[in-house]
Amino acid sequence: MNLRIGFSPCPNDTFIFHAMIHGLVHGPKVHWEPHLEDVEQLNQRALRGEYDVTKLSFHAYARCHQHYQLLTSGAALGFGCGPLLISREPMTLEEINRARIAIPGELTTAHFLFRLAYPQATNRTTMIFSEIENAVLRGEADAGVIIHENRFTYQEKGLALIQDLGQYWETRTGSPIPLGGIAIRRGLDEHLKVMIQEQIANSVRYAWAHPQASADYIQCHAQEMDPRVTRQHIELYVNDYSADLGTLGRQAITKLYAEAVQSGILEEMPVDLFL
Fold first, then answer.
1. What pTM does this model have?
2. Which of 36, 45, 60, 123 could be a cystine partner for 107, CB 3.0 to 4.6 Å?
3. 148 in catalytic set
4. Active site residue: 18, 65, 111, 148, which one?
């Protein structure tokens, strides 16, 4: 059986999926066809139901939950790993509300968190996440919401932190911040879905046990990223929740949707979320 799987070229995803797509861990008799794309591209493809298994933002999942279920493995979720609002210099709340804000995708959890924290800041423009720092530096945006490895580089470029949106979420809810997860097509065989969920969890564990096995694969997709930043990226975004969401992880995701409905960002709660 051939299945299409989408995930990002970011180090946390290539670290997680390397063993699985290279046949290094036991799993169902599936030939994986991997597609590596920016998270917002994955979000948009998920809305169209293009991949059988896909990484996507938890914000995006709320808009395609009729077609997909969330797996309990492969997720990016935790404390101290949220998006950051940055600018060239400190800004007041009034200035933020008037500012041109660059966001890394309409359907990203980063965008959701920004809307939750700054509901009156409506002048938002979408950019590829890797372009936001330079757009702010060039004055094409007054501030930007950065994700992924950019949280390790913005200070070196002379940019200032305005708000840690992950910390904002943690203070508001006491929960880890759910960034992105793995969704699987609802119409697939139930036993197959469970086997894939277990295979992804085993792929995470293999990566932890054999970190050098995936090193070349990670670096070739890391867009010339400094190896030090690559390591920091993996250490921050791959954790126990990546192997298994557990009760706390599930509760955090459900809390995200409850907050979205309460704030008017979503019209209704997604149902039957998890496999």
1. 0.93
2. 60
3. yes
4. 148
